[in-house]
Design goal:
Number of helices: 4
Radius of gyration: 24 Å
Order of helices and strands: HHHH
Structural class: mainly alpha
Number of domains: 2
Helix content: over 70%
Amino acid sequence: MEQTLQVAESNATTTADIAKTDNRTNQARNDAPVSLFSEDEARDFRKRWEQVQTEFVDEPRGSVEKADQLVASTIKRLAEVFANEKTRLEEEWAKGDDVSTEDLRQALRKYRSFFDRLLAV
């Protein structure tokens, strides 16, 4: 009987631990920065990278040159995304004195999210 009670307690602890882990995982997902690129754009960059790697066997120098170009174009696109996002954020709160504290609070939350995305790069 005592063994059965210990097994039941062990299973309860395991279930509780799993629930806690699931909650932490869900919280991490909710707090995770949003991707900087759309899924299609990220897929295109990855596809282009795979081509660069595949070409290395037959054309190492050309592959490295293409890698350099791909990285440069990705950085350029990243700068465009950040500039557009910053402009959008500024437009939301830079309305003169007609901005409420709540609007400013929301703006600050969006800046925090944007800042986290910048640091995640």
